[in-house]
């Protein structure tokens, strides 16, 4: 063993004693040392890849390379993991990473299916749903589910590795003192460490494919580049919502499209969606409700549903703005529906609340919100226990502002109208969705009266929406 390695071992023994982590044998310390050295290789590689991406993004004249595009999404994209802050944001992020190392938790879950594939996600509460969705749709066993948000706490990324990357973390923290790209520089400390852990885990377990279920994260394209360089295939799975929201740039081996609108967008975004293959799957939760609509139960006439995205509540809770003006659009959608209901009281109004509004602590505030917006109008709120996607057949026409529920309802073959007031670029010009959009109470009134007499089949034919609807003769992998 080289002199520097003996010094590291002695340091670990001393550090363990100072922090009083308990009795530790020399064998345990040697084992820890091997983990540190093993992770150090991946850390060095990821830090080097980051610096190269940063250099190309800020100095290269070639704005078409994959690395430039990865840098563009890395530095320009909005992240919901870390908002703005003062000049000390980077240093607080360093501290946050340190705390993650100390608080151990499970971050990797074996599915029991075997195989050489893994899913990168975040939400542990729906990991079984996500795993079933991907394994059935891909017809491939998926061995692991990895929570990107928790990987630093799984015991692989040790204090020794933290100290190894300290110079990089300090560099990013000082850069984050400048307001420009502050959040991007600060969050990069955590992101680089997470990607190194994922790369290390992938190598040790012989993974051949990664399904990226969080492609909206700003470091997703950078992570793809690192994984693909190491011979690991990457499949990105964006939500059924518009790609233009968080996925204008997609770099991977493959991408999954789960709505017809994705294909429309792709035709205009081919320059920044860099993939070798496109897979077409059903929406991510479709297997939980498709059986309900196999025989397409008919909705009662003169019933109007309002699909909430909880924008008023997100605003009250000061969530990051998505920049789409969807809060204003949703407010106007509800206002327009109220105006219509006052003129045509024979229509039943049904509110389908967002899961946020269904939480126990928000139920009273939600009721007050809708009572104020629909003052004097009879309406009912659906059962909190039943997801909206399982209730499409309860109303003849649904109105909505901006939500993935748009594409799920259309996929199941039910009528829908969209308030896109102030939502720039959605729907994109030339899309059939433009014909079912409205901006005012008058336009909503005309659309409801016109389409109330149409069957669902007639509605889809009239507005050329057949591509959005599930096709009985079309095979969807894992779902027919």
Condensed summary:
The chain contains 18 helices and 15 strands. It is of the alpha/beta class and 480 residues long.
Task: Give structural notes.
- α4 packs antiparallel against α7 and α13 (326-343) packs across α17.
- This protein folds into 2 domains: 3-287, no CATH class; 292-468, Glycogen Phosphorylase B (Rossmann fold, 3-Layer(aba) Sandwich), CATH 3.40.50.
- The strands form 3 sheets. A 7-stranded mixed sheet has the order 1-3-2-4-5-7-9, sandwiched between helices. Strands 12-11-10-13-14-15 form a 6-stranded parallel sheet, with helices on both faces. A two-stranded parallel ribbon has the order 6-8.
- The protein has helices at residues 3-19, 26-59, 66-76, 89-102, 127-138, 159-164, 166-175, 182-204, 220-229, 243-246, 260-268, 311-316, 326-343, 355-358, 363-373, 405-411, 441-452, 456-462, and strands spanning 108-110, 117-121, 144-147, 209-212, 233-236, 250-251, 254-257, 273-274, 277-280, 303-307, 348-352, 380-381, 397-400, 415-419, 437-438.
- It has 480 residues and is α/β, with parallel strands linked by helices.
- The protein is built from 18 helices and 15 strands.
């Amino acid at each position: 063993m080289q002199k520097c390695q003996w010094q590291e071992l002695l340091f670990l023994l001393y550090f363990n004693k100072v922090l009083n982590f308990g009795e530790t044998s020399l064998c345990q310390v040697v084992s820890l040392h091997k983990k540190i050295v093993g992770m150090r290789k991946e850390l060095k590689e990821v830090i080097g890849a980051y610096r190269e991406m940063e250099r190309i993004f800020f100095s290269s004249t070639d704005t078409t390379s994959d690395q430039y595009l990865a840098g563009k999404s890395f530095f320009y994209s909005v992240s919901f993991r870390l908002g703005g802050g003062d000049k000390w944001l980077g240093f607080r992020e360093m501290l946050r990473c340190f705390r993650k190392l100390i608080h151990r938790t499970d971050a990797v879950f074996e599915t029991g299916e075997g195989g050489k594939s893994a899913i990168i996600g975040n939400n542990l509460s729906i990991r079984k749903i996500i795993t079933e969705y991907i394994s059935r749709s891909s017809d491939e066993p998926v061995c692991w589910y990895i929570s990107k948000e928790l990987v630093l706490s799984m015991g692989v990324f040790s204090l020794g590795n933290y100290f190894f990357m300290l110079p990089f973390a300090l560099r990013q923290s000082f850069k984050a003192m400048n307001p420009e790209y502050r959040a991007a520089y600060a969050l990069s400390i955590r992101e680089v460490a997470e990607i190194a852990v994922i790369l290390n885990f992938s190598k040790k377990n012989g993974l051949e494919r990664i399904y990226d279920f969080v492609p909206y994260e700003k470091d997703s394209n950078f992570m793809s580049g690192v994984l693909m360089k190491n011979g690991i295939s990457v499949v990105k799975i964006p939500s059924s919502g518009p790609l233009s929201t968080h996925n204008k740039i997609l770099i991977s081996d493959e991408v999954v499209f789960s709505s017809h609108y994705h294909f429309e967008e792709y035709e205009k975004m081919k320059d920044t969606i860099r993939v070798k293959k496109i897979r077409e799957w059903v929406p991510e939760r479709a297997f939980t409700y498709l059986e309900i609509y196999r025989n397409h139960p008919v909705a009662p006439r003169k019933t109007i549903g309002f699909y909430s995205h909880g924008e008023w509540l997100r605003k009250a809770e000061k969530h990051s703005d998505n920049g789409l003006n969807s809060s204003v659009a949703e407010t106007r959608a509800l206002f327009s529906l109220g105006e219509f209901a006052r003129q045509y009281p024979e229509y039943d109004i049904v509110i389908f609340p967002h899961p946020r509004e269904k939480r126990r602590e928000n139920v009273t505030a939600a009721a007050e919100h809708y009572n104020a917006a629909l003052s004097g109008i009879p309406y009912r709120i659906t059962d909190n226990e039943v997801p909206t996607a399982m209730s499409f057949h309860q109303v003849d026409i649904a109105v909505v502002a901006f939500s993935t529920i748009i594409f799920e309802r259309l996929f199941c073959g039910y009528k829908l109208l969209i308030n896109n007031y102030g939502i720039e670029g959605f729907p994109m010009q030339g899309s059939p969705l433009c014909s079912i959009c409205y901006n005012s109470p008058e336009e909503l009134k005309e659309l409801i009266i016109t389409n109330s007499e149409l069957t669902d089949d007639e509605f889809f034919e009239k507005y050329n929406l057949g591509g959005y609807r599930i096709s009985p003769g079309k095979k969807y992998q894992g779902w027919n």
